[in-house]
Amino acid sequence: MEQSANHYFKIATKKLQLANEELFRNGNSVDKKLVCLNTHTAIENYFKGFLVFHEIEPIDSSLSNLYEQCVAIDIHLQKIEIKDVICRHSNYSLFSKCEELEAITACFEAADNIDTYFRRINILN
């Protein structure tokens, strides 16, 4: 494997932390697109780390393909709702939904739920 699972998990955890800090910072100057980008990157890296942990080299970086590969390994991941994240971020340059607080919160919650689940099953510490 080119990268270790921990490499991906460290990136994911850091990006989720950055999204959290930006989302909950004081004042009205929250950079919503930055929250979206960090959240998307976190989810992508959580999935890549999960695949590498299970000795599968991630080839495609699309969230829908990574998600499908991960669900094939662990059916419980279907309980984490990411369909809105996938359709919102099919292209990094298009963040039209990222102006809506509800959309940003849904993306952040998906990443946070993945983090929580991976900690619960002891592949992330």
Description:
- By secondary structure, the chain is mainly alpha-helical.
- It has a single domain, classed as Four Helix Bundle (Hemerythrin (Met), subunit A) (Up-down Bundle).
- The protein contains five helices and no strands.
- The chain has helices spanning 5-23, 32-53, 63-73, 83-88, 101-120.
Q: What is the strand and helix layout of this fold?
A:
Blueprint: H1 5-23, H2 32-53, H3 63-73, H4 83-88, H5 101-120
- Give the overall shape: globular
- Arithmetic mean pLDDT: 85
CATH topology type: Four Helix Bundle (Hemerythrin (Met), subunit A)
Which percent band covers the strand fraction? under 5%
Number of helices: 5
Give the ordered list of helices and strands.
Answer: HHHHH
What attributes characterize this protein structure?
mainly alpha, 125 residues, Four Helix Bundle (Hemerythrin (Met), subunit A), single chain
